[in-house]
Amino acid sequence: MTAQELFEQIKKKRSFLCVGLDTELTKIPEHLLTKDDPMFEFNRKIIEATHDLAIAYKLNLAFYEVHGAAGWNSLVKTVKYLKTHHPDVLVIADAKRGDIANTARMYAKAYFHSLGCDAVTVSPYLGQDSVVPYLQYDGKWTILLAITSNESFGDFQLVHNKQTGNLLFEDVVLKSMHWGSDANMMFVVGATHPEYFAAVRKHAPHHFLLVPGVGEQGGSLQKVAENGMNDRCGLIVNSSRGIIYADITGNFTSEARKRALKLQQEMEVLLKQNGLV
Amino acid sequence: MTAQELFEQIKKKRSFLCVGLDTELTKIPEHLLTKDDPMFEFNRKIIEATHDLAIAYKLNLAFYEVHGAAGWNSLVKTVKYLKTHHPDVLVIADAKRGDIANTARMYAKAYFHSLGCDAVTVSPYLGQDSVVPYLQYDGKWTILLAITSNESFGDFQLVHNKQTGNLLFEDVVLKSMHWGSDANMMFVVGATHPEYFAAVRKHAPHHFLLVPGVGEQGGSLQKVAENGMNDRCGLIVNSSRGIIYADITGNFTSEARKRALKLQQEMEVLLKQNGLV
Lengths: 277, 277
What we know:
The structure is a homodimer. By secondary structure, the first copy, chain A, is an alpha/beta fold. Chain A is built from 12 helices and 8 strands. At the A-B interface, α3, α4, α5, α6 and α7 of A face α3, α4, α5, α6 and α7 of B.
């Protein structure tokens, strides 16, 4: 999927929402637990309730790996379902992998080729040769962690580099400019830390940013747009728990849709304010 | 498994070898491909050929994930086989995960509880709250990346912190001292960069270090021991490709054993030189 196709989808749906499928068996409606594959059933219903409001779905692999092979089957079925029924949406494997080149090639193959996702999140700690293998896949996206949405993000991401004068996350953005381009790389910038969007945008004005942390984690959509929006939106804002666990009864799909719709409507206002729709 | 149990095993086997099961279908002997589960069959035979020479086995998850649910089944079977037939060895999930606390809890459950591994490798980029969930499991080990064995390790790991005066990997070691102890944490230090062992040992004199990069990647066992060994050895040195792909014919088990034996014998000399056996 190209950046232009992503932007076209944003304009058409008037949304830059990503729905995070952090699916947990202990949190989904009880009546689904009798199904053959409750995680897939839950995902399918959430997707059907939200696909006209969302431009992307993000599958956090931890929630599937915890169930072993059965979890992987749910993951595979969910990706296949999205690719078959909603081929316009971006499917993100939220893996945050980071390993030596030989291993990175395997992970890239696992998520892009075997699983068929469009994008994968990658951790930068091992440097260039741990990231480049993901960039070899045409039409796929590597989403590098810059600023994460968790509380202790600053332990290392805000280390002040004596040589460059930058904070570590800025060096991640700057160095990686030479590894890929705004046509195959994005950056993770947490909504919980809007004060760092300006620094990322200074170095990466044209890249898309994947923004977790709105909703349950407390980030503000308004601030994210103020600090991070560019001339083709350039934002994919994720909400997971805030949407998918809005309700845990038989009404869960309509409640999830209500939450997604609320975010989409706020996004439409912000897109209009920026003259993008 | 406690550090003392690990040391007892090192003394008994006169070895601090970890065998890395980076199993690839394109590299294993052809006659195994007709088996029901070729990856597990290969792993089982490598384990049987080396278990008296190795104190640990490391399973790099990328090589299993690339085969989806079938790969996870091979992984599960391999861990179960090790735990059943060789309960003395340390089983490491080489995952290099690093995610927000809510997700880290899922990964910890996946590798420690569901899969039953003794240790997991974790990336530090997200800071304290991304690591602490792994440390909640009694008798389990969190192995934090400090210096990795790849070429571009220095892109960020060697960033010079203006505030502390340390290199980034030193800050990783220093900060994490307050998160866990030498009873539940280890650090990854690549054999390819022996010059940084002294800095790690200065801050973490008593911790075990997991050392990749000997063999195929070019690191020297001699230099690792000189710079990294402490009074209970404190080293777990991994070799993957150099052992498991020593031969790809019907003789692969005896060739793998030869390579493992060569390393064990070198290790025995080093342990003797340091008065540990």
